[in-house]
Write a structure and sequence with these properties.
The chain is built from seven helices and no strands. By secondary structure, it is mainly α.
């Protein structure tokens, strides 16, 4: 192949690159990014309190903090992928929202100040799921349904 010739772009990549990013995709990326940032911040907060405070079990607090911070990386990576219109990013974003629903439910079952957090988490998770499975979002990411070769 000479230097003047360029390989033909993949049709899915060409379709994804056309036009501006849909607003719904941007909103879904923002919601996923906010969830990821909240997980990382919460994990670091628990980690710092576990190290500097007086927890019942220091090892458990440190482990929980590290786990939450690392789990926060999944929605952050998914948000970046959604902003860059990568088809793979919808899967982790959807999984994050599905995992958030039982957490929101358990927060709603408490008799404490966690109820508003449960409401907020449920609203964000449902809104993000609706945005992620929207047809416009699916087309923008170049995701084809089953049996569709074009």
């Amino acid at each position: 192949m000479s230097s003047d010739q360029k390989p033909a772009p993949d049709t899915a990549e060409a379709a994804v690159a056309e036009g501006p990013r849909p607003r719904r995709l941007t909103y879904a990326a923002v919601l996923a990014g906010l969830e990821g940032a909240a997980l990382v911040a919460g994990g670091l907060w628990v980690l710092v309190l576990g190290i500097t405070g007086d927890p019942d079990d220091r090892q458990q607090a440190v482990t929980l903090g590290i786990t939450l911070a690392v789990l926060g990386l999944l929605p952050l990576l998914a948000a970046r992928g959604l902003l860059l219109r990568r088809g793979w990013s919808r899967g982790p974003a959807v999984i994050t929202q599905i995992m958030a629903l039982p957490v929101a439910y358990s927060l709603l079952q408490s008799n404490s100040m966690a109820i508003p957090a449960g409401i907020a988490l449920a609203v964000v998770a449902v809104a993000a799921l609706v945005l992620l499975v929207n047809g416009e979002t699916t087309r923008a990411l170049g995701i084809k349904g089953p049996g569709r070769s074009e």
